[in-house]
Amino acid sequence: MSTENIDRRLEFQDSRQAQRLFGPHNAHLRLLAAMSGIALDNHGTVVTMRGQDPEAMDQVANCLVQLYGLLHNDQPLFVQDVEHAWRILCRDPKADIKNIFKDVIYAVSPRRIITPRTVSQRAYLQAFRENDLVFGIGPAGTGKTYLAVAMAVAALTKKEVKRLVLTRPAVEAGEKLGFLPGDLAEKVNPYLRPLYDALHDMLDFRKVQEMLETGVIEIAPLAFMRGRTLNDAFIILDEAQNTTPEQMKMFLTRFGFGSRVVVTGDITQIDLPTHAKSGLIQVEAVLSSVSGLRFIHFHEEDVIRHPLVGRIVHAYERYTQQNGPQKA
C-alpha cells in the first residue's frame, strides 16, 4: 500500500438527496470515515476522499453511490443503514444494496417500512416466501423474531392467514405456572413480553388489544400448544433453543392446512437444565432431508444495533481483556 495520500472526488447531481446521503451534520460521512480509515469532506454535492488505501477508497465510493441510489424514492436513510451497507459491501463488493434494502416486508406507515438490512435477513425473507416452515438461528439482535412478527403481521393484513399464534417456552418458570400470582395472562406476560413489544411496534395498541381479545392474535406459552391443530395460522416459536426434543416435535406437528411456521432461537443461549438436550440443536439433523423447509443461520455481522451500542460492547470487551472478568 502506498504511503502517499491519494485524493479522489465524487459528485452527486441532486443537492437535496446529497444532503440526505451525507446525514445530519455529515453524520453518515463521519461514520464511513471512521469505519474505512478514509478522510471524507464535502463541499456542496461533492465529496472529497483522501487516504492511502485505493481499495478502501473504492469501497467508500461504492457504498456512497449505492446509498444515493436508495434515496430517489424518498426512503429514509438512518445512520444504522450506512453501517449495515458498509458491512455488507466489505464482505461482498458486488452486493446490490437496493435489492436488499428495498425488499419490503411490512409497511407500518408510508414513512416507516420494515425491510431486510443484511444479506442473511434477505435470505430469511426469501426462505419464508418459498417454504411453509423456516428456522432462523443465530445470536440476539439479528432481527430473527422481529422480522418473523413483521412477516406474520403482513400475512394477516393480506388475509393470507386468519390468525397469528406466537409462543415461547417459559423456561424460567419451568412451564409450571400455577405457583405464580394472577390469571394466565399475568403469569406468562414476563416471558412473552418481547413478542408483545414487536407487535406494538407495528400495529396500533388498541388494534393489538382488539385482536388479542377476539383471538385473531394469540400469545401463549409453548405448553399450551399440546393437543391442538392450527389451520390457516401464522405460527411463531421464539426462543426455541429452550425447547426439549420432545417439545420441538410436539410443536412441529401442531400446524395444519394453510399455516406457515417460523422457529427462531440462539443455540448459544440455552437455559435448559444441564442434563436436558435442546430441541433446536437436534432438529436440523432430524429434518436435514425433509423438503418444504429451510434453515437460515445468522451471524455476529448480522446484529442490528445502534453504532453507539456496538462501540459500548467493544469497549467492554477491551476492558475485560485488559482487566479480566470482574467478580460480583
What this model shows, in words?
The N and C termini lie far apart (47 Å). The protein is α/β, with parallel strands linked by helices and 328 residues long. It is globular, with a radius of gyration of 23 Å. Helices cover 43% and strands 17% of the residues. The chain has twelve helices and eleven strands. The longest helix is centred in the middle third of the chain and has 19 residues, at 184-202. The model has no long low-confidence stretch (mean pLDDT 86). A hairpin with a 2-residue loop joins strand 2 and strand 3 (46-51). The strands form three sheets. It has a six-stranded parallel sheet. It has a three-stranded antiparallel sheet with strand order 1-3-2. Helix 2 runs parallel beside helix 4 and helix 7 (144-157) packs across helix 8.
Q: Care to give the gist of this entry?
A:
With 328 residues, this protein is α/β, with parallel strands linked by helices. Helix content is 43%, strand content 17%.
